[in-house]
Design brief:
CATH architecture of the largest domain: 2-Layer Sandwich
Number of helices: 9
Structural class: alpha/beta
Bound molecules: NADP nicotinamide-adenine-dinucleotide phosphate
Low-confidence stretches: none
Number of strands: 14
Largest sheet: 6 strands, parallel
CATH superfamily of the largest domain: Dihydrodipicolinate Reductase, domain 2
Strand order of the largest sheet: 5-2-1-6-7-8
Order of helices and strands: EHEEEEEHEHEHEHHEEHEHEEH
Radius of gyration: 20 Å
Distance between the termini: 13 Å
Strand content: 15-25%
Helix content: 25-40%
Number of domains: 2
CATH topology of the largest domain: Dihydrodipicolinate Reductase, domain 2
Mean pLDDT: 97
Shape: globular
Length: 340
């Protein structure tokens, strides 16, 4: 019997994440019937390709979702807030990459390797949220450790690539680097300070408690996805890397996990690639994880300052596993298990 085909719309198809969504649908052979690319007025009429055929970009508006089964959103939070309800009303299930719906109790927040079962709650609002990119890769790495030893506390510091801010930030790092290397001043437009040859301990705006929104996302989303009251604290930092977020993650567990056990747990864990051979200087790096779908885990050490502590280093491509791949994985489970 022929596989059922699904009509898919990508809202934000011209952006950094949208572009990867197109690639992921192609690479993973997602059974697409009709495809629609949606963006702002700026892009209407632009021609993109899907499976070698031209597709004209249309305007993201309230009438864009007639006949659509799956709507992948990556056009920013306010667009998701405005247009997901219309898409759901038109009968599409929305998979949203923005932060707009993530903490809504009636919207599942899903990382397939961790809580695929939560997809079932999509019926409440017709919306499934994709978590923040830094959260996704961290929970993929922590899930097998949590299942074995129950994590009580997480301390995470991130080293996040500029592609996490979208296509304008990718251009900013490229242009600033070129200007500085040619002895010219570099202008900061996207970030509050220069990003080339610098690190910014600010991702998104600050909240009243002194944390940034990105840090609070990591704290709150982790607890929702892991369905746990685990204590989490985070420091998120933007670094001059194009693709791939890195994270130093320190955990304390109820049951001791030594390095050998951690290796065993992570070696065959879903979505993980264990990259840890320090004798040969082998460990996860963004240059290796970029363009890949797996979460790279390594530098595993016991934290000798506490009783049951572990340090790990986690790297993944923020645009792929941190956004597009995770969304397409959700679409795969949704269509195979719930809509099919
Ligand atoms: P981006 O490269 O700046 O792309 C933004 C996209 O949104 C473009 O397609 C843009 O269309 C569209 N858009 C902007 N304003 C619009 C409007 N008024 N009406 C319709 N479309 C509009 O940003 P991105 O990095 O792809 O991020 C997109 C979303 O994904 C954001 O919500 C972001 O938080 C989320 N996300 C990003 C990452 C990441 O690592 N980059 C990870 C997880 C989640 P035009 O080309 O026409 O302007």
């Amino acid at each position: 019997m022929a596989k059922k085909l699904w009509n898919v719309a990508i809202a934000g198809a011209t952006g950094a994440v949208g572009n990867q969504m197109i690639q992921c649908l192609e690479e993973r052979n997602f059974p697409v019937g009709k495809i629609k690319f949606l963006a702002s007025e700026r892009s209407v009429g632009k021609i993109l390709e899907f499976r070698g055929k031209p597709v004209v970009v249309e305007l993201l508006d309230h009438n864009a979702f007639e006949g659509i089964d799956i709507a992948l959103f990556s056009a920013g939070g306010s667009r998701s807030e405005e247009f997901c309800p219309s898409a759901a009303k038109a009968g599409a299930v929305c998979i949203d990459n923005s932060s707009a719906w993530r903490m809504d109790p009636d919207v599942p927040l899903v990382v397939p390797e961790v809580n695929a079962h939560a997809i079932a709650l999509y019926t409440k609002k017709g919306i499934i949220a994709n978590p923040n990119c830094s959260t996704i890769q961290m929970v993929v790495a922590l899930k097998p450790l949590h299942d074995y030893g129950k994590i009580r506390r997480i301390v995470v510091s991130t080293y996040q690539a500029v592609s996490g801010t979208g296509k304008k930030a990718i251009d900013e790092l490229r242009i600033q680097t070129g200007e500085l290397l040619n002895g010219r001043p570099a202008e900061a437009k996207v970030y509050p300070h220069r990003i080339a040859f610098n690190c910014l301990p600010q991702i998104d705006s600050f909240e009243a408690n002194g944390y940034t929104k990105e840090e609070m996302k990591m704290i709150n989303e982790t607890r929702k996805i892991m369905e746990s009251d685990v204590k989490v604290t985070a420091t998120t930092v933007r670094v001059p890397v194009f693709y791939g977020h890195s994270e130093s993650v320190n955990i304390e567990t109820e049951k001791k996990i030594n390095v050998t056990k951690a290796f065993e747990l992570l070696k065959n864990a879903p979505g993980c690639k264990l990259v840890d051979d320090v004798a040969h200087k082998v460990y996860p790096m963004p240059i290796d994880a970029a363009g890949q779908d797996l979460t790279y885990v390594g530098r595993i050490r016991e934290d000798e300052s506490v009783e049951n502590g572990l340090n790990i280093w986690v790297v993944a491509d923020n645009i792929r596993k941190g956004a597009a791949t995770n969304a397409v994985q959700i679409a795969e489970i949704l269509t195979e298990k719930y809509l099919g």
